[in-house]
Amino acid sequence: GYLFCYSCFFGFASEPIALKKLGIFFPQPLLPGHSLSVSKKGLVVKKVFSLLDLKKLIKKNSSFEELFSSFKESVFVRSKNLKKAAVLFSGGVDSSLVARLVSDNVSDVGLFCCGLDGSEDLVFADKVASKMGLSLFSKVVEKDEVPALAVKCLTSLGFFDEMQLGIALPEYGACELAKSKGFKVIFSGQGSYDLFAGYSFFKAHLKEKGFLGVEEEIWSNLLDILSKNLFRDDIISLRHSLELRV
Length: 246
Description:
The chain is built from ten helices and ten strands. By secondary structure, it is of the alpha/beta class. α4 links the parallel β6 (84-88) and β7 (108-116). The longest helix has 23 residues, at 201-223.
């Protein structure tokens, strides 16, 4: 959430753009793992949890079975009691795994993707969805529609970052389509490239600092996942009145 305080009132909103209507342009975010107490004395923000707390609980020896069990439990906890759910879908490993496990727990699942007309991504997503036996809804965007879609994304995000905008464009189109189909909850997977050292720059860390250097970089990326991924995805989904579950 986002907060702004005047001497006479406190303002809260799920996204910063809502507070702009009150003339508030720089609200402060309440970060994950933090609590906020409001009293006559003012505001008190307290840190109650960090990913580094989780690091202390990780076993030295683990296994694929434990990893997959934790992953299944994570999806189950977020999907139990749902009768209908959408999934942001690209046809890649991450979204396919999430889609499969969500469909194991939810009876009505819709996969949503967005891309340029004729793009390989849409073709691949369609092939994978067909093999999985799940319904795919695709939003096809013409090249001349991209500028208008970019403006919508920039208005929602409230900042300009070329890489973030490139990721946000198809997400925006997919969420727009999911909302039109009556979905209220949408699933997405984030962090696997960080968790499993999937980026090419990890090779440099391995060469320079060894496996300990790679581990340090993994945790550094996970600690930054809010600013890199979750903030963007949360804003885009909220713009379409969708509850994002990651």
